[in-house]
Known about the structure:
Shape: elongated
Order of helices and strands: EEHEEEHEEEHEEEHHHEHEEH
Domain Competence protein CoiA nuclease-like: 25-181
Protein name: Competence CoiA-like predicted nuclease
Domain Competence protein CoiA C-terminal: 190-333
Radius of gyration: 23 Å
InterPro entries: CoiA_C, CoiA_nuc, Competence-induced_CoiA
Structural class: alpha+beta
Strand order of the largest sheet: 3-4-5-6-9-10-11-8-7
Number of helices: 8
Mean pLDDT: 86
Distance between the termini: 60 Å
Largest sheet: 9 strands, mixed
Strand content: 15-25%
Amino acid sequence: MRIGQKVIPHFAHEQLDGCALGQGEGEYHEKGKLDLYNWLKQQGGLEVALEPYIEKIKQRPDILVKVGSRYCAVEFQCALISEEILQKRTKGYLRIGIQPIWIIGKERIKLRGGNLAVLKPFEQLFFQQFASNNYPILLSYCPRTNMLTSISNPYPLKTKVYGNMVTRPLAQLCFYDLFKEGLLSIQKLYSCWLKEKILIRTQKNRFLSHIEQQYFEWLYTKGLHPQHLPSLIHLPIPNHFHVQTPVYMWQSSFLLNIVVPLQVGGIFHLDNIYDKLLFYSQRKMIFSFRKISEEPLKEYVQLLKVLGYLKQLNKNTFQKSKEILLYRTLEEGIKNDQHIIKQLKDRIK
């Protein structure tokens, strides 16, 4: 037990070499955990326990909440831990029918304007879904300001995530507000996404990740530069958070490998093209219970159909309707980016 004039009384984890559970047990974490515990205790209809030990899985959640006949484990995570530990703890709860609710420390995320957050890959693992028909939600809490932030309906792009963001005082929320998602305005998203499309065309190829190096080398083998890419590449779609690879990479692979080489009138079958896509890997979503109603690639194909470039012959067979242009200059590419985004915005008015 640690007690002092400047320290919130708490049980400290004995420091053992190699023990990941001892990380992050500082004042920020302790105050946040106690804030959440007291907030839950003040609400009617909930049974709340602080740091109970669950013998069956040998885990000790920050807070255990009983709602009717169901249990939820609330974890306030401030420290960086391995994905393996995160998965193990989550699967442990799920195995015995306990719903995990992960809330990360607000200091781990950076908000950039009303609909943009900067999240490293570790923080993106905490997007969680509480029902099969919901979009993912990321929850964060700041014990210094007593504010809880939710990010839902995410459109991730590397370390950026566009989404519906709501920040409210914890005292104004009830337990069930944790599960409420909000939808991002698609008009706002398209306006932001135009800037991202232009960034892809103009970015300097410095400090690239391994997959980015592979992507640019692949483009160069085709005699292409990002400035030349069709404006149909790098378009946001509702379920693209299910794909680990950045949007512009897998859409480039599909368009340049499958559609562009076809003559107008040529056909392709969706069932036969996955092995030809160089950049298309599913995202690891530890907390995802969502059944994908529309797989991301199929959503993209439907968008190309709406824009008039493809015609659907049957469920999985499509025909190329018109040529897809490669641009000669940066100015031509940006002009057409603006045109395609305007088309998308006009179609949802």
